[in-house]
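If your schedule permits, I should be very grateful for your opinion on a structural question. What I wish to show you is a protein chain and, alongside it, a tokenised description of its three-dimensional fold. Would you kindly read the sequence against the tokens and tell me how you understand this chain to fold? Here, with my thanks, is the record as I have it:

===
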Amino acid sequence: MKTAVFSTHKFEKDFLVNANADAHELVFYDVSLSEQTIALAKGCEAICIFVSDVLSAPVLEKLDELGIKFIALRSAGFNHVDLTKAGALGMKVARVPEYSPYAVAEYAVTMMLALNRKLIQAHNRITEQNFSLDGLVGFDMHGKTVGIIGTGKIGGVVARILNGFGCRILAYDKEVIPQMEALGVTYVDFATLCSKSDVITLHVPLNEATKYIINAESLATMKEGVMLINTGRGGLINTKDVISALKTGHISALGLDVYEEEEGLFFEDHSEDILQDDVIARLMSFKNVLITSHQAFLTATALENIATTTIYNINCFGNHIQSENEIRA
């Protein structure tokens, strides 16, 4: 099956090629899919997209005109796809439901530790031959209360890691998981989690119920000096409200691996450009903010699993077999 692979990055191409093993004709493009680049999919039966590609209704309509009926996502999240429109056009969409919960979970905890122990500031000082320890005081994670919003596969691994640190763990989720309770996790309502947690980490999908779950109202109920970590989706937090909380010191540290307006910014080299996004520029001005470019998933294990599942989904499309990874509105 001839498939146009958009937003191809160097770090993933070899994994896709190896997983494919010449089973399909993969046409790689480093550009993202948009109304301006749709023509690149001409002559293909399927497309393969990354989280930075947005399949809005207009894009899907034009893909339909080209005869595209199969869409393979290289991600677990699918909020960047208009599934209602895809279904109306008779398009099949399949995702990678999981690739490595350990990769993202370990990264979230890494951000906690780096911010707490001020590793970035310490490193920058050493490069300037400043060996002073003033201003680098952190806290023991042992005994601290960490609130985990979402205890699915990733949130569950975060809980297990933090349990090893001796943290008290609170969780908020629509589903109470017995294995988590057996671990010592206490499920509470959202308000209680916000008011009792020293650190809050987000591990829920982005949908209507979770959009801006972190906002001015919820921030006001949080402890003074709370640490906030988001390795989920940018739209889970209202960035401007978080900036306000950073300015007053209500948030003591912020770790972001995702950003609501990351499309066209993350995954690309803009080192020679003038930064046009005033919001992220303001975030970058805080010494207690750690921002990375959506790299929490980036391990060899995760990339191999993503490639394997992606090719499996394309195999199913080509053989007219329903993949268990298909998603619908």
Summary: The mean pLDDT is 96. The radius of gyration is 21 Å. Residues 101-291 form a domain with the Rossmann fold fold (CATH 3.40.50.720). DSSP finds twelve helices and twelve strands in the chain.
